[in-house]
Amino acid sequence: MSTTDTRFAFGANWQEFVHGGVNDTRTGAAVTALRRQLGVDRLDGLSVLDVGCGSGLSSLAAYRLGAHRVVGFDYDPLSVAASTAVRDRTGVPAERWTIVHGSILDAHFLQTLPPPPTSSTRGASCITPVPCGRRSTTVCVS
To answer: What is the pLDDT of residues 58-84, one digit of tens each?
Structure first.
């Protein structure tokens, strides 16, 4: 059995959630959870990497907290589509929130991710898990 055979495809669930469950209440809860988990009030000028972006709710929360750049990725193409739908519906510019298909287990893919800004004076901070919706996500901030 290959690795892909053992993965659960969350994307179909996220498609339903995005089209019926992403609203101001849930987005506000995601913003509050991310703020609490990171121990900050704002993410102004920082870059965020949302590993396993799923519905895109954590990425949206990071953007709403002022992140300059958000990059989300997921192995499941339907999750990528769900995140893209959230970005497009909320009017976030694609140049501020990039969403791509890829695996955290793929070293070549990881090398293609944009590096954090060189002007950052803060080290990277990774939070696992950040509760968001019905699952959690890994969020790295630099």
So the answer is: 999 999 999 999 999 999 999 999 999
